[in-house]
UniProtKB/TrEMBL annotation:
Belongs to the ATPase alpha/beta chains family. The keyword Translocase applies. This is ATP synthase A/B type C-terminal domain-containing protein. It comes from Paenibacillus glycanilyticus. Keywords: ATP synthesis, ATP-binding, CF(1), Ion transport, Membrane, Nucleotide-binding, Translocase, Transport.
C-alpha cells in the first residue's frame, strides 16, 4: 500500500542542503521534489527514475531513502516550536490544554490555515457556542458542520482523496460522540484523520489532560509566563510532548536537537527567577552562557501567524523542519552568542551573516 511508504526527508535534507538546485541539475522538476517531501505526492505514485535520482543525490540506497511500514509520521506545521518540541502525529489526536485568553483558538485557526495550504481537508465540528475566537476557527475551516452524521458523511466522501484535519471541542468527548465517530470511521478505511481537540469550557486542569481528553498523541500545554511576556505561540517547551518522540519514530538528528533544546530551556527557566531578581552577576559564568542561549532560543521560537497578520502587522512565517533544526543547532552550538535575543524575536528563519 502506498500509505506504508514515506520519503526519509530529514536524511535527504541533511545530505543535499540545496535540494531544489540539486534536483534541477539532476533533471528533476523542483515542484515534484517539493511535493514528494511534503507528502502532497505519495511515494507510491512517484516515478521510479525520480526516486533513483534522489537516492543518487543523497548518496544512499533506495532502502535508506524510502521508509517502509505503517509507523508514526509527523505532520509539519511550519511552526517552529511545535515541529521541534511536540510534533503532530499524522492520524493522531492533539490536545490543547489552556486557560482563558491563552490563544488556544487562535492556534487552532492557524493550524487549520496551514493544513489548508498543505492540501488537507479541514473540518470543524461546531459546538454551537459563541466562544471568543471561534469565528476565526470557522473562517479557516473548509467545512463547518454541526452533527456527527454530517461529519461522517463528509469525511467518507473526501477521505479517499485527502488527509483530514478535524477540529473538535471537548464536549464531543464528554457526550461520547467523538468516540462513536472514530469507531464508525474505522470501517471506512482510506487516509488518516488527525484530530485537534480543544476545551472551550476551560475545565481541563494542567495535570489531567489525559483523563479529560482520553489518549493523546500530542499534548500542547499553554504557558501563562510566555503569554505575560508576549511570546507566541505560548506553548510550554518542557511539558508539551508527542508520542512520536518516543521509540524510533523521529529522525535521530531531530530527536537529538529536541532533547538538547528542552534541556537548555529547562535550565534557562530555572535560572530566570535568580536573574530576574538578582541579576546575571549572581550566577556562574557557565550558567550565564546557558541563560543567554536559552533566552535566544526562546525568542527564536516566537513566530508570526498568518491569521494574526491584521493585528500584528507582521507577515506570517512558515519554516520547514529542516530550516528549524538548522537554526536551532546554530543557537545551541553558540554561533549566535554575539546576537541579542531581541534580534531573533518574532521572526522566521535566521539570516546567515556573511
Amino acid at each position: 500500500m502506498e500509505e506504508e511508504l514515506q520519503l526519509n526527508v530529514p536524511l535527504l535534507r541533511r545530505r543535499v542542503p540545496n535540494l531544489t538546485s540539486a534536483a534541477r541539475t539532476a533533471g528533476l522538476r523542483a515542484a515534484t521534489v517539493s511535493n514528494l517531501c511534503t507528502g502532497k505526492i505519495p511515494v507510491g505514485r512517484a516515478e521510479v527514475r525520480t526516486l533513483v535520482a534522489l537516492a543518487a543525490l543523497a548518496g544512499c540506497s533506495l532502502d535508506e531513502l524510502i521508509i517502509r511500514g505503517s509507523g508514526m509520521r509527523m505532520i509539519e506545521t511550519g511552526i517552529k516550536a511545535l515541529d521541534l518540541l511536540a510534533p503532530v502525529v499524522r492520524g493522531g489526536t492533539v490536545g490543547f490544554v489552556a486557560r482563558p485568553n491563552m490563544g488556544q483558538l487562535v492556534l487552532l485557526a492557524e493550524f487549520m490555515h496551514r493544513m489548508n495550504k498543505r492540501g488537507y481537508t479541514t473540518i470543524f465540528w461546531d459546538p454551537g457556542t459563541d466562544a471568543p475566537g471561534i469565528s476565526h476557527v470557522k473562517d479557516q475551516s473548509e467545512y463547518v458542520l454541526a452533527t456527527r452524521d454530517d461529519i461522517y458523511k463528509q469525511i467518507v466522501k473526501l477521505r479517499e482523496e485527502r488527509d483530514i484535519l478535524l477540529g473538535v471541542d471537548r464536549s464531543t468527548v464528554l457526550s461520547g460522540e467523538l468516540f462513536s465517530l472514530k469507531e464508525s470511521l474505522k470501517e471506512a478505511g482510506a487516509r488518516p484523520i488527525t484530530v485537534a481537540l480543544v476545551d472551550m469550557a476551560y475545565a481541563v486542569a494542567d495535570d489531567s489532560a489525559a483523563e479529560a481528553y482520553g489518549p493523546l498523541d500530542t499534548l500542547w500545554r499553554f504557558d501563562s509566563d510566555l503569554i505575560s511576556r508576549g511570546i507566541y505561540p505560548a506553548i510550554d517547551p518542557i511539558t508539551s510532548t508527542s508520542t512520536i518522540s518516543e521509540g524510533n519514530y523521529l529522525d535521530a538528528a531531530h530527536l537529538a536537537l529536541q532533547q538538547r533544546a528542552r534541556k537548555l530551556l529547562r535550565r534557562y527557566r530555572e535560572l530566570r527567577l535568580i536573574v530576574t531578581t538578582h541579576g546575571l552577576d549572581k550566577i556562574t559564568d557557565s550558567d550565564s552562557q546557558l541563560y543567554r542561549r536559552g533566552e535566544r532560543l526562546e525568542s527564536y521560537l516566537a513566530q508570526p501567524f498568518y491569521v494574526s497578520e491584521p493585528y500584528t502587522n507582521k507577515a506570517g512565517e512558515w519554516l520547514s523542519l529542516y530550516e528549524t533544526l538548522e537554526d536551532v543547532k546554530r543557537i545551541l552550538d553558540g554561533e549566535l552568542d554575539e546576537t541579542e535575543a531581541s534580534e531573533l524575536f518574532f521572526k522566521g528563519k535566521l539570516v546567515v551573516r556573511t
